[in-house]
Write a structure and sequence with these properties.
6% of the residues lie in helices and 34% in strands. It is mainly beta. The chain has a single domain (2-19, 38-307), classed as Jelly Rolls, CATH 2.60.120. A 9-stranded mixed beta sheet has the order 1-12-11-10-9-18-7-4-3, with no helix packed on it. Strand 11 (177-186) and strand 12 form a beta hairpin. The chain starts with a strand and ends in an 8-residue tail after the last helix.
């Protein structure tokens, strides 16, 4: 029996529907020096948005994993480097697309929403050797990403999530809503908690979407720096499955996935594939662990992303 709890909240705050446009060149801070190596940890080598993500308000709210999604084909053919670990790319991911952020030349990726019998198509998958993002039990976690859909329909196309047959979470969009879901399946019953915005995202501009689950067992959903929905959820999610060391692959299907649902995917089955693929752009993806962004952090990142600067940036 499926128990589904859906909380749709409208009018908590007025969302800005103005198109996101880059700031005038004269208003932008100077870019990082050309000889910078961001991996060295120098603040001068980070763009304003990356600095805001990596060095949040005190106490610091830093992601466990963070992918700028702007690397070009000359850097790597089938993976992208990030903070914490790498992402494996599906064969239909288009790289070096125009990015979401003002005053930032870093690019984005475009996904085609392809549907076929191929295992790897148009999505990005966390490296199973390095990405642990199951958020088991009632552990806090957060997702932050910039999205620009090309097409939204009646399908809950996945933006970002970690799905197992036994339970998990995902952020999804369709033509009439944006939703954040935690679910648990087992013992002949199914339970699902969902919060949602009751209309679709615009397809003519980038939107900044953040979903968090806090230590008080409350789910939060933000769009463009404003909270649009919240709701309680006490479901206990499963941990990552055990590993199949003999075959060098996960024994289950739990993977952090951007742009598709991996709930039924099994790397050991050649015909297995992911589904509900995203059709549109993705940029600046982050996963947070115990310390998740609060409303002030989300607003701050939105302001940096749309204006290119914030007076409270570190350094």
């Amino acid at each position: 029996m499926l128990r589904r709890k859906i909380m749709i909240m409208v009018g908590l705050a007025s969302l800005s529907l103005a198109a996101v446009t880059a700031a005038q060149a004269a208003e932008c801070p100077p870019p990082p020096p050309s000889d910078c190596r961001p991996a060295d940890g120098s603040l001068d080598c980070l763009t304003p948005y990356a600095r805001g993500v990596m060095y949040g308000n005190a106490p610091a709210v830093s992601p466990v994993y963070y992918w700028r999604l702007g690397e070009d084909l000359d850097f790597a053919l089938d993976w992208m480097q990030g903070v914490g670990s790498t992402l494996d790319l599906g064969s239909q991911v288009q790289r070096s697309q125009p990015g979401a952020l003002a005053c930032d030349e870093d690019g984005s990726v475009a996904l085609s929403g392809a549907v076929s019998d191929q295992v790897w198509e148009s999505h990005l998958v966390g490296d199973p050797d390095g990405v642990r993002a199951a958020a088991p039990g009632t552990a806090p976690f957060g997702l932050a990403i910039w999205v620009k859909p090309n097409r939204l329909d009646a399908n809950s196309r996945r933006i970002m999530g970690h799905e197992l047959p036994a339970g998990g979470y995902f952020l999804a969009a369709r033509s009439d809503r944006l939703s954040f879901t935690r679910y648990e399946h087992g013992d002949g019953s199914s339970h699902e908690d969902t919060i949602a915005l009751s209309h679709g995202l615009p397809n003519d501009r980038w939107s900044f979407v953040v979903a968090t689950y806090d230590a008080d067992h409350v789910m939060h959903l933000y769009v463009d720096g404003v909270q649009v929905a919240e709701g309680d959820s006490k479901l206990a999610l499963p941990d990552d499955p055990s590993w199949d060391f003999e075959h060098g692959e996960p024994a289950g299907t739990g993977r952090l996935v951007l742009g598709a649902s991996g709930r039924s995917y099994d790397a050991r089955v050649p015909t297995s594939r992911m589904y509900l693929e995203w059709d549109g752009g993705l940029d600046e993806a982050a996963f947070y662990g115990d310390r998740i962004p609060e409303a002030s952090d989300v607003d701050r990142l939105w302001r940096i992303g749309t204006t290119g600067w914030s007076s409270d940036l570190p350094g």
